[in-house]
Design a protein that fits this description.
246 residues, single chain, 17% strand, alpha/beta
């Protein structure tokens, strides 16, 4: 009887807690491209005030998100922004379900591994080409990032590019005066396309080479993201352009 009780007491002990680990990308593989024009199924707010940001940032209170990483990929640059600007709230917006799941799990793990850190970054799965103004008020954002966006090489798919004349008016709406748009790509044709369209838009002006050097983010843009690191490994070219809302 005593032996049985001893066995019961051993089996009743709680299992040892599993140590927190960062997620591994190999379990979140997905196609590199997604059709942003397709009618994906998304829940999105009708108005920015309808969205509960506290579900992503427990300490946000009455403050607002000021940085948006559009098409944040696997979140490398998002994490860098969280470290560089601990007082700013940054959101990554990603359309691919597996990739956004990875970023959400990555942020959750980072928060558990680093007490009180990374509380200022989050990722939501959405289509920024369709629903950006549903999340942000007029003039809310200080910085928007478009790092290594899908080039959509075929001419018939150029309308899918994240930088185009119609969308630039929307970006101008959510950016505050003096707000910045950052673009990086390893595709020269796409770089020229983005620069041409943004420079032609009356809401924006391009920073000159000296102004780009003075921006503390100019170097971080190149290699902080997973895509940027891949381009570096492959010894590819990188094209950077920064624009200011006037």
């Amino acid at each position: 009887m005593e032996v049985d009780e001893a066995k019961d007491s051993v089996s009743a002990e709680p299992p040892a807690s599993t140590p927190t680990k960062l997620p591994q990308k190999r379990f979140y593989r997905q196609r590199a491209h997604s059709n942003p024009i397709a009618d994906h199924s998304f829940d999105y707010p009708v108005y920015p005030d309808d969205y509960d940001w506290s579900q992503h940032y427990p300490s946000i209170g009455d403050r607002r998100v000021e940085f948006a990483d559009i098409g944040c990929g696997y979140g490398g640059f998002l994490v860098t922004l969280g470290e560089m600007y601990p007082e700013k709230f940054t959101v990554g917006m990603e359309i691919r379900v597996k990739v956004s799941d990875y970023v959400m799990d990555r942020i959750h793990a980072l928060r558990k591994l680093n007490e009180s850190k990374y509380q200022n970054i989050a990722c939501i799965r959405t289509n920024a080409m369709k629903y950006l103004a549903n999340y942000f008020h007029k003039g809310q954002l200080e910085k928007m990032f478009f790092l290594y966006p899908d080039p959509h090489f075929k001419k018939a798919k150029h309308k899918w590019r994240i930088i185009n004349s119609a969308l630039l008016s929307e970006y101008g709406y959510v950016l505050r005066k003096g707000g910045m748009i950052y673009t990086v790509t390893d595709v020269k044709d796409l770089h020229e396309w983005m620069c041409k369209h943004i420079e032609q838009h009356p809401a924006f002006e391009r920073l000159n080479a000296e102004e780009v050097k003075l921006d503390v983010l100019s170097e971080k843009l190149l290699d902080s993201s997973e895509e940027g690191k891949k381009v570096t490994r492959n010894k590819g070219d990188k094209f950077v352009a920064i624009f200011r809302k006037v």
